[in-house]
Amino acid sequence: MPKRFAAIWFRYLLTDQLAIRRPSLREKPVAIVTLDHGRKVIVALNAKAIRSGLQTGMTVADAQVLLGDLQIFDDKPGRNLKLLKGLAEWCLRYTPLVAIDPPDGLLLDVTGCTHLKGGEKAYLTEIYQRLKDIGYDVRPAIADTIGAAWGVSRCASNGLLVTAGQHRNALMPLPPSALRLPTPLLLKLHELGLYQISSFIHMPKSVLRRRFGKDLVLRLYQALGQEAEFLFPLKEPVPYTERLDCLEPVKTRPAIEIALQDLLERLCKRLHSEGLGMRKATLTWYRVDGKSGHITIGTNHATHRSPHLFKLFFIHLDEVAPGLGIELFTLDADATEPLSNKQSDLWAGKPWADSEQVAELLDRIASRGEIRHYLPDEHYWPERSSKTDSISAQPQNDWREDKPRPIQLLEPPEPVEAMALTPDYPPKQFIHRGTRHVIVGADGPERIENEWWIDTNTQRDYFIVEDEQGRRYWIFRTTDRWFLHGYFA
Amino acid sequence: MNARKEELIAKLRQDIIAWEGYRPPEAGSNVSLGLGPVETAFPNSIFPTGTIHEVLSATPEDTAACGAFLCGLLSRLLADGGACLWISWSRRIYPPALKRFGLNADRIIFVDVPIQKDVLWIAEEALKCEGVAAVICETTALTFMESRRLLLAVETSRVTGFILRKGVKNANSTACTARWQIRPVRSSLRPGMPGVGHPRWQVDLLKVKNGQPGSWTLEWKNKSFKVVTPQPTIQIQRRYA
């Protein structure tokens, strides 16, 4: 399929955005200024100010002489990029490949997308009209190459839709500024009387390169489609994605659920046919008022069962704020994995955690609780004797059994007041939280040292003690203080 | 004549138990949990699986004893396979210690819940899942309605659930099949030996549906439960290790 690109030029990006927030500014000349060497210089103007004869680059003092009622606003650096990024995200409804073209444009790869809106003409009209409704004055153009679309949108007086193969003819009458050239080069071309692209398009490549440098040649041939040029899309397209355009904006919960179900079924069918399962998925919605949001879910185990995935999304569906209505849903499978077609063990009774049922249960639980799976770790220090790992991980070594360990461990250890008759002997009694425990039996000490290569070198002498009522504790002594570290069964 | 009468009464007892909603465990499953004489308290002398047990503990020391007792039961329950979930809000259980009670901690999926009221939601979800063998849910409060819901959840899935209730002062009535209370008691060694003996607990079965409540002193020794008859402790001069 031959490539088609669209360029959207926001003629008054910054001032339009101001006017959207303050509609009263629509009828007044507006200038956005920035400080440059101690002077205030105009960087952006609205249509009315330009019609009155102002230009960007003028100082504010000069402009105010010409126009007394000029409204002046300070510029924030990076504002246009932020706006363009927002607009590019909004434009994802037209094509998945949208790139930012600073300072005031967007580039869209519309190959194979235009028929969704009923042809290229309707596509362009919709982009124009929708952005106009929001408040942006734009000039969108479609052509075979990025360069041609860019030039036509900026410089052509009409004919914004360049039919396939006609981009060369469309470029002919345009000025050299349609080629994205630096200003010194444009001035040079102007001095030489080359006012139109047609005046130098026929010159041999070597002549152009010698006289004007390789920039002009590159840009010219890019516009003509003889040099490659690539878009850097805002969002990498996901290979497994489904979109649902709503005929009418939806805002009710059942409608959102139906949309989600429909998307999941389509995506799962595709994944199923390719033997893949989803590990991570994102549902994104685009609202009528230009806002969007998303929900991401993850699974423990690759799956393409849509009822299960629906349940996972269902838990988060409250986060969908439809506002005035949602017009587009997209569902991306961000991470996919080949399905493991494990034969279930027929004879082993109930399966373990890698069974599908349990994996689905854990996915559901993961939204409310933290799932931990412990494996033995080769450390004596009690806090480090186990480590957490993924559910499917198998222990590499056995759990140690040679030393008794308390069934409940206090983290951190709680200080106790203990009384020992003889140094290095277990205490006779200890007081924990105001309760006195008289010790009648004790085992120990067991010295455990902290690994000096991990932490500071400290040591603990642990005793297992039993009090008069049969309650068993694990207490330890550091150099001078006693701590309760756990309860034995 | 007398023998026939007893036979008849035993038969009638069986029927009544069945009418009261008791379902015998599935054929071929591991029915004995190694509780020994304690199992006579249960209907048909079989530990009721596929239902909800409630374990009460008042102090952290009791909770530790309950945890160990449950680990001992789980080591048998999980012998047939199946996943096990330990759901808690403020967990203190120390995974390396479970080995002593015959259980590998890597067989258990621990779920730590930041919000206390979500514990029962997760427990219900887990109890409904047929791939799960046992669920342990640590909670403080459990109302009658909540216990009823949990019981309904296991009706079809036949998962065994243990509700480990912490800090219980006055237990309210619940729909659970059995109610246990486990407290640590003095361990005993051979007279004259210093140190701390095997874990020993006072196990009270306060309530059991269609069974006989009872009270035993159990000891965990050589990876199994042993019923001991408490001897009057001879007060001797203890020496330390």
Automatic annotation (TrEMBL), chain A:
Keywords: DNA damage. GO terms for biological process: DNA repair. Residues 19-150 form the UmuC domain. Residues 388-397 have a biased composition (Polar residues). Residues 383-405 are annotated as: Disordered. GO terms for molecular function: damaged DNA binding. The keyword Transcription does not apply. It comes from the Bacteria. Pfam families: IMS (PF00817). PANTHER family: BLR3025 PROTEIN, BLR3025 PROTEIN-RELATED. Belongs to the DNA polymerase type-Y family. This is DNA polymerase Y family protein. It comes from Mucilaginibacter limnophilus.
UniProtKB/TrEMBL annotation, chain B:
InterPro entries: ImuA (IPR017026), P-loop_NTPase (IPR027417). SUPFAM superfamilies: P-loop containing nucleoside triphosphate hydrolases (SSF52540). This is Error-prone repair protein ImuA. It comes from Mucilaginibacter limnophilus.
